[in-house]
Amino acid sequence: MPDIYQHKDQEPSSDMAAIFAALGDDTRLVIVSKLQDGSDRSISNLTEGLSLTRQGVSRHLRVLEKARLVRRRRVGRETRYQLEAGALSRARDYLARASSQWDHTIDRLARHLET
């Protein structure tokens, strides 16, 4: 049975925990959704429509950056943020493995109960 918590081709579970913890906040999910089109955005752009200050959005961006969900770059005097699609792909793959493992476990249990 595959071990979803540590897979040789995937990141260690602590990295997955950081990704899921970062995604476990409504504001950060809104920020991620604003970056989903692949464009980079400034803090001003990301603050639009949120009831947070730029400083508040910056704190959320630091959490997302630490989890390697976003990357930043300087363009002149402005800092721009872009979604790291690879991190979301790794999270999706992790969930797919977890789902597969649970399906396998439930199938084994069902076969055991049928005997």
Q: What does this entry look like structurally?
A:
With 115 residues, this protein is α+β, with helices and mostly antiparallel strands. The protein has one domain (13-114): Arc Repressor Mutant, subunit A, CATH 1.10.10. The chain has helices spanning 13-23, 26-35, 43-47, 54-66, 85-114; strands spanning 41-42, 70-75, 78-83. The chain has a 3-stranded antiparallel sheet with strand order 1-3-2. Strand 2 (70-75) and strand 3 form a beta hairpin. The longest helix has 30 residues, at 85-114. The model is unreliable at 1-8 (pLDDT under 50).
CATH superfamily: Winged helix-like DNA-binding domain superfamily/Winged helix DNA-binding domain
What is the overall pLDDT average? 85
What kind of sheet is the major sheet? Answer: 3 strands, antiparallel
Residue ranges: pLDDT <50 for 5 or more in a row? 1-8
State the helicity in percent bands.
Answer: 55-70%
Trace the largest sheet across and list its strands.
Answer: 1-3-2
CATH topology: Arc Repressor Mutant, subunit A
Specify the overall morphology.
Answer: elongated
Gyration radius from CA atoms, angstroms: 18 Å
Number of strands: 3
Task: Quickly give the structural class.
Answer: alpha+beta
Residue share in β-strands: 5-15%
CATH class descriptor name = Mainly Alpha
The helix/strand order is HHEHHEEH
The total count of helices amounts to: 5
- Give the count of structural domains: 1
CATH architecture tag: Orthogonal Bundle
Note the gap between the termini.
21 Å
Chain-wise SSE layout:
Layout: H1 13-23, H2 26-35, E1 41-42, H3 43-47, H4 54-66, E2 70-75, E3 78-83, H5 85-114
Antiparallel strand pairs: 1-3, 2-3
Helix pairs in contact: 1-4
